[in-house]
Design a protein that fits this description.
There is one protein chain. The protein has a seven-stranded mixed sheet, sandwiched between helices. It contains 14 helices and 14 strands. It has helices at residues 2-16, 37-56, 76-89, 108-113, 126-129, 141-153, 168-178, 204-208, 220-233, 247-254, 274-277, 279-292, 298-317, 324-332, and strands at residues 24-30, 65-71, 94-96, 118-119, 134-135, 160-165, 188-192, 213-216, 239-241, 262-265, 336-338, 343-345, 357-361, 367-369. It has two domains: 2-139 and 276-345, Rossmann fold (3-Layer(aba) Sandwich); 141-265, Rossmann fold (3-Layer(aba) Sandwich). Helix 2 packs across helix 12 (279-292) and helix 6 (141-153) packs across helix 7. It is α/β, with parallel strands linked by helices.
Length: 370
């Protein structure tokens, strides 16, 4: 028992480290347990790999970035408690890389009251992105849906069903995505409950009148539930999903059933030739491997690019001058940031990228860029 306590103490110490008065503290709330734990860990580790390099050199003028990551188990209630701790007890100068719009919503009035930023939340939802204190490195769900609609329109697809969560963030998402089809396809919509295992009844309307394709604005589990039910019924409707779906989880969890699925992406493919030709991806892959031996994926790559961007903004502000308000102002004045292979442009607003790519699950259960 004593040995177990020692091991747990060591593990917690590695995860959180020790905070010093001169540290630049960033606060993160993501799922580290539960069905979305892989996403949370990849978001954390992709950023930690970058911050470890920045802390080891002279990039921050002797200061160090300390990322405090708290587990929200994908719960909005727990995310709010985490945010209060990060702001009030841990004194974070900014919130960084929250995992969804749902877990970000309750942080918005708090960061506004404290005149600070939420940087690089893992969402394209307007419910989080439209707040003046939120800055992103990814395209919006509208940008993604427009790309999907354009590709499928060229195949002659005219009937679509948009699947969304029946809650505040989900309704905001479906309203935005719907606008991508104006003047063309008029999709039906299907609301589902969040964090609930879905069976045949949830998709009854789809099976009665099959569309040409399904567009999911949900997490991977809902996509998987649908594909398993459809396979059992012997029905096959092409599946497309926005980047909120973790493609690596989809491939790993559903394999052959998920074959042919399309997922829009907001960062370049971390697989194949780009790892050699794109310096930003190549460095992220090396940093992550050096940090924990992991292979780069879409989620850890997005986290890496976000962390690299924030390091550059901190350098622009001046590490010695970083405060909540100074960093918020620095993000507002960030301008054009070239990560040597991925460019972000904040000259026209708070959202640095509109990059969208499409990947599909191939026969070998690997996601390939389309």
């Amino acid at each position: 028992m004593k040995q177990l306590i020692i091991l747990l103490t060591m593990a917690l110490g590695w995860a959180s480290g020790s905070v010093h008065a001169q540290d630049i503290v960033l606060g993160q709330s993501v799922p580290l347990t539960g069905s979305n734990a892989d996403i949370g860990r990849d978001m954390r580790d992709g950023a930690l790999a970058v911050f470890a390099k920045a802390n080891s050199g002279a990039a921050l003028g002797g200061r160090k970035i300390h990322l405090i990551t708290l587990d929200n188990a994908n719960s909005r209630v727990q995310a709010l408690q985490n945010t209060k701790q990060l702001l009030d007890s841990d004194k974070a100068v900014a919130l960084f890389g929250y995992n969804s719009a749902t877990t970000s919503l309750d942080a918005l009035p708090l960061i506004e009251a404290k005149n600070m930023a939420l940087f690089a939340p893992f969402t394209g939802s307007p419910s989080a992105r439209d707040h003046p204190n939120v800055f992103t490195i990814r395209a919006s769900y509208l940008d993604e849906a427009q790309k999907v609609a354009e590709i499928l329109k060229n195949t002659g697809s005219t009937k679509a069903v948009i699947v969304y969560y029946d809650d505040e963030a989900g309704k905001s998402n479906v309203q935005m995505v719907n606008t991508a089809f104006e003047g063309g396809v008029k999709p039906r919509v299907l609301a589902v409950k969040r964090n609930v295992k879905l069976g045949e009844a949830a998709f009854e309307s789809v099976f009665k009148d099959p569309p040409h394709y399904m567009l999911f604005t949900t997490q991977s589990s809902v996509v998987g539930d649908y594909m398993q039910v459809a396979q059992a019924k012997g029905q096959s409707v092409p599946v497309t999903a926005l980047s909120f779906v973790n493609p690596d989880e989809l491939a790993r969890s559903y394999g052959v059933v998920a074959r042919g699925a399309m997922v829009s992406q907001v960062v370049p493919s971390p697989n194949g030739s780009l790892l050699f030709s794109n310096a930003a991806l190549r460095e992220c892959a090396k940093l992550l491997k050096d940090f924990n031996g992991a292979k780069l994926n879409y989620t850890s790559l997005e986290a890496c690019l976000a962390a690299k961007t924030l390091v550059k903004v901190i350098q622009q502000v001046g590490p010695a001058r970083v405060t909540r308000s100074a960093l918020l102002k620095g993000l507002s004045n960030a301008g054009r940031i070239d990560l040597d292979g991925f460019v972000l442009d904040y000259t026209k607003g708070r959202h640095g990228s509109r990059f969208v790519d499409i990947s599909f699950l191939s026969r070998d259960s690997m996601f390939q860029s389309k």
